[in-house]
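Hi R.,

Here's the chain you asked about this morning:
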Amino acid sequence: MAIRRMLRRYKYGERRSISEVPKGYLVVYVGENERLRFVIPIWYLNKPLFQELLYRIEEEYGFDHPKGALTIPCSYDLFLEVTSQLCRL
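And here is the predicted structure, written out as tokens:
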């Protein structure tokens, strides 16, 4: 699946070098219980579909980021569905 190749996925808590986040990308942690680390393109933030996901997450959970990165407490399936749709745009 193209989205799986595009997204770089790491288990939450693993030590990674900042150099592993290329310019133009950002780290998000996704998951309801166990969080996985994804590196996504910054342009996602400008897309209405991704903004809607963030809005819904903010409404339900607020924005508390103890690790300093954006945390999206939704299912992996939902996150992959949204990001897959963004890749088709």
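One quick note: The beta strands are 8-11, 25-30, 36-41, 70-72.

Cheers,
M.
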